[in-house]
Every structure is written in C-alpha cells, then in structure tokens.
Amino acid sequence: MNRIDRLSNLPDTILHHILSLLSTREAGRTCVLAKRWVNLWASLPSLVLDSKGNESNFEHFVNRVFRLRESLSVVSSILPLALPGSIFRCESLEELMLDVPYPGIEPIPDLRPKSISLSRLRRLDINAVVTLYDDFMVKLMSGCALLEELSLRLCKLEFSVIPSDVLKRLLIGSCDHSDMIYIHTPNLLCLELYGALLGGYTFKDMVLWSRQRLNFKVSWMNMIISGAIPGTMPMCSEPFQMLRILNCMERWCR
C-alpha cells in the first residue's frame, strides 16, 4: 500500500506558517523531505539571514537564497561581512534594511557595490558602521528611480551631495562626516537629523520646500550632551508656509 504524503499536499500558506516557526537554516534543511520541499523554504515571506555559527559558508548561502527568490519585496539583513552584490541587483525589491554591526576592525569597511539596480526600491535603511562614498550615492540615486525614504545611521559619510527629485523622507543620525553635505531634495516632506554634526549640511531648492508642509525634526539632546550646538540653522532663511520643528526633549519628559 502506498503511503499518502498528506503534509506535502497542504497549501503553501500553511507550509509557510510551519516553516516560519523554524530558523532559516532549519527551514532550509527540510529540502531533503520530499521533492515538494526542495525550494519551498526559500519562498518564505520572511527570511532571517544570520552568519552566526557558520561564517565561512554564509556568503554562499545568501547568494543561493537570492538566486532562488524571484519576487523578493522586502529584505532586512544583519550581515557582519561583505554584502553579496546580488542584494543590489534584485529588481523586485521594494524595501531594504541593512543592519551591519561594528566589525571591530580598522579601517571601517566600505559599502561600494559594483552596481545598483533596484528599480522598485522605495525605502532604504542603512544602520551600519560603514563608509559611504560619492560613487555609492550616485549609483543609488541613478539605480533607484522610485526611492522615497532614505535613512542613514552610524555611517561615515564621504559623499558631498544627496541629489533626488523623488525623495520624500530623509533621516541622518549619528553619522560622521568632515565636509559639508549638500541636500538637494526639492520634494522632501520629512527631514530628521540627529547627532553632533548638525551644522554640516547645506540645503538647496529651499524655495520649493517653502511651498509645502515640511516636518523637520532635530535631536537637540544629542547636541547638548556633545556640546556641539550650532549658532544658526542654515535652513531657516526661507519663508515657510508650514514648518514643524520638533525636538526630542519630549521623550525625556514622559
């Protein structure tokens, strides 16, 4: 009598729920159960890619995941090593969140992909101790025509300009940079800056900004602690119709 594999006959939604209870590596091991399971784990809606315990094969594992995924929409990565270039060439990707902890080495590693082609990307969040150069920003803006949200935290910024006609939300927090950075984002709706180097930015197209509602959030507490309070803010020279300046003191008063 032939046994019926009832588990494999379940719909993908149920099998995905079962696999979601496992770690990504554990889910990957289910590929040996039956033909139905070979690449099922790679189609999970959410994958956690973690190099702990097997760093030597991690890059190969990540590249394999991206080869198997054809309709990836959101990636949240914790990758304490060189990022595989395939991440920056996933055409269906809509959100990319990179969380790269400090590797404990000097110099700080660079984030310099050979190319960036993310035609559907709308949100990019880089929370990483990495260095970003002019070529990265040029490739990012030319390869991400729909990018609306950009967050940079803990990065070392070696670029001179953020140019975008579509960017709507920009956050720069606790980033290190020695030169002035020009922010050229005429359609920006929300700007949030925090850290000690708040005076190191110059804003272009302020006339266009003044015609719309702009939320400008400044973390004054970080500057008070660091003793780096600027005498003037370079963006306050234009007559805004609606400008909301929010400070972070409220979080200390709750």
Quick structural overview:
Helix content is 20%, strand content 24%.
Q: Would you kindly provide a written description of the structure presented here, covering whatever features stand out?
A:
Strand 12, helix 6 and strand 13 form a beta-alpha-beta unit. The protein is elongated, with a radius of gyration of 22 Å. The N and C termini lie far apart (69 Å). It is built from seven helices and 13 strands. It has one domain. It has an eight-stranded parallel sheet. A three-stranded parallel sheet has the order 7-9-11. It has a two-stranded parallel sheet with strand order 4-6. It is α/β, with parallel strands linked by helices.
Question: Helices, strands, pairings?
Answer:
Blueprint: H1 12-20, H2 24-28, H3 58-68, E1 74-77, E2 95-100, E3 123-128, E4 131-133, H4 134-143, E5 149-153, E6 156-158, E7 161-163, E8 169-173, E9 181-184, E10 190-194, E11 201-203, H5 206-209, E12 213-219, H6 220-226, E13 242-247, H7 249-252
Parallel strand pairs: 1-2, 2-3, 3-5, 4-6, 5-8, 7-9, 8-10, 9-11, 10-12, 12-13
Domain F-box/LRR-repeat protein 15/At3g58940/PEG3-like LRR: 80-198
Organism: Carex littledalei
Domain F-box: 7-46
Strand content: 15-25%
What's the helix count? Answer: 7
The structure class reads alpha/beta
Low-pLDDT residue intervals, each spanning 5 or more residues: 221-242, 245-254
Biggest beta sheet attributes: 8 strands, parallel
Kindly report the average pLDDT value. Answer: 72
Termini separation comes to 69 Å
Rg measurement, Å = 22 Å
Total number of β-strand segments? 13
| Broad shape | elongated
Neighbour order of strands in the largest sheet: 1-2-3-5-8-10-12-13
Helix content: 10-25%
Counted up, domains total 1
The SSE order reads HHHEEEEHEEEEEEEHEHEH
